[in-house]
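Appendix B, record 7
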Amino acid sequence: MKLRFHQFGAPAEQLVLETDEPRAPGEDEVLLKVLASPINPADLNFIEGSYGIVPDLPATPGTEGCGEVLESRHEAFAPGDRVMVLGRGEMWATHVTLHGDLLFKLPAGIDPLQAAMLKVNPTTAFRMLHGFVSVPPGGWVVQNAANSGVGRCVIQLCKTLGWRTMNLVRRAELVDELIALGADAVVIDDAAGLDQAKGIMAGEAAWLALNAVGGDSALRLMNLMADGGSHVTYGAMGRKPLKIPNGLLIFRDLSVHGFWLTRWLENARLPEVHRTYQLLAHMVMEGRLGVPVDSVHPLADFPAALKRLTAEDRKGKVLFTPGL
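Structure tokens (predicted):
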């Protein structure tokens, strides 16, 4: 079984559950039983036809997930191995056949739900923290959408790295929750929150800002940055473009970047990719890194899963669990 769409549009309107016999693996391929796969914004954009990759139709979403090897013709994998997918995996299915080079072998005993979410959010946070500017010990990192999956990973990773985080959120009830996770400060993402953040930082400024919103929120991050700092955009939740006053570029020498995990996976050498995931997987195993789970659903329950994404009381990721 798999979820597919035959034309682009709203996911709730375009997705259908279809019967599909898994393809036997060819040379260097692996047949997986899919254990779990989350619903990410990129998956929804993929179905809408607005993602950076436009597939041939019909297509199956599921950019990340965890599976168990049923049959392998790749020397690195054997039946029973637990793996996560590195490429676009079509993981909203009960089974999938993939080339072995697109898989990463997971450590034994890792939670399959956390493993299913390892590819995107933790790695996006990790690469943004390490790929643009050197943050000094005890330095500030500022971010909006701090309660998102990536935002929570940023908080946890910065705590391990010895960096402080200033976190902008839209709702006051998130403050205590993120402080408990390890955030150093959490403020509301508005003009008053910007003034509050400046007061907390007491004349210090951030070398790195991580933007998932755009618009005025992205500009607030820029106003908390040190001269020569890096501002990195990885999402557009607010669906508004960046507003960058000329003076911030001319007189403050801010650098503005974009980050897309797919591009890093395409360009990075495979040993670097594996080292990154080995590190992050062990942090998950040690309880130092994780993404909260709101609910899990069988594939046939996809209307309820999609509806859960917009629920006001949602507390984490929504996942399909066809094999658990």
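Remarks on this record: The radius of gyration is 20 Å. The mean pLDDT is 92.
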